[in-house]
């Protein structure tokens, strides 16, 4: 089973990395680009076959290690 | 319109960041975690309403700036 975790900065938190990408795209001539946010995606190969248990475990991983929940939000997808 | 870009290291390319996450999860007592790959996700707000044109433009952004196509692969999703 595979899990995919998205970790993004929360909406109110300034994202200098995304801002840098937006500026660079502007310099390269790409127009019509508004806000840009950059985050992390983590793909995990999991053993076990219980989808609900896997999702709960991956959420625990996010809380403990993968995301800084003070400034980041995460979503878990089991695929 | 929003575009979401995933940039991941190509399959053969060593991913030390993912490997570090895997080790850390092991030390925290999470078992049953196989390979871990870490990548970037970039969310762009786009003006314009032509989906196909937007996807083509975002692909051009990936080729020029967002991904290093020597070692990285990308997927574009218009949402």
Tally of helical segments of chain A: 2
> In the residues of chain A, how many domains can be counted?
1
Q: Can you count the beta strands of chain A?
A: 3
- Strand portion of chain A: 35-45%
CATH classification class of chain A: Alpha Beta
By oligomeric state, this entry counts as: homodimer
Shape of chain A: elongated
- Here the CATH topology of chain A equals Mth169, Chain: A
Structural class of chain A: alpha+beta
CATH superfamily of chain A: Phosphoribosylformylglycinamidine synthase subunit PurS
Unreliable stretches covering 5 or more consecutive residues of chain A: none
Largest interface: A-B, 31 and 31 residues
Our Rg estimate of chain A from Cα atoms comes to: 16 Å
Query: What is the rounded distance between the termini of chain A?
Result: 7 Å
What's the mean pLDDT score of chain A?
96
Describe this protein's structure:
The structure is a homodimer of 79-residue chains. With 79 residues, chain A is α+β, with helices and mostly antiparallel strands. Chain A has a single domain (2-78), classed as Mth169, Chain: A (2-Layer Sandwich). Helix content of chain A is 35%, strand content 37%. Chain A contains two helices and three strands. The first copy, chain A, has helices at residues 16-27, 51-66; strands spanning 2-9, 33-46, 72-78. A three-stranded antiparallel β-sheet of chain A has the order 2-1-3. The radius of gyration of chain A is 16 Å and the shape is elongated. The relative contact order of chain A is 0.34. Strand 2 (33-46) of chain A pairs antiparallel with strand 2 (33-46) of chain B, so a sheet runs across the interface.
């Amino acid at each position: 089973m595979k899990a995919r975790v998205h970790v993004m900065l929360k909406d109110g938190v300034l994202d200098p990395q995304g801002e840098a990408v937006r500026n660079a795209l502007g310099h390269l001539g790409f127009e019509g680009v508004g806000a840009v946010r950059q985050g992390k995606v983590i793909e995990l190969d999991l053993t076990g076959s219980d989808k609900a248990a896997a999702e709960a475990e991956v959420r625990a991983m996010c809380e403990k290690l993968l995301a800084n929940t003070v400034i980041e939000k995460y979503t878990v997808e089991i695929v």
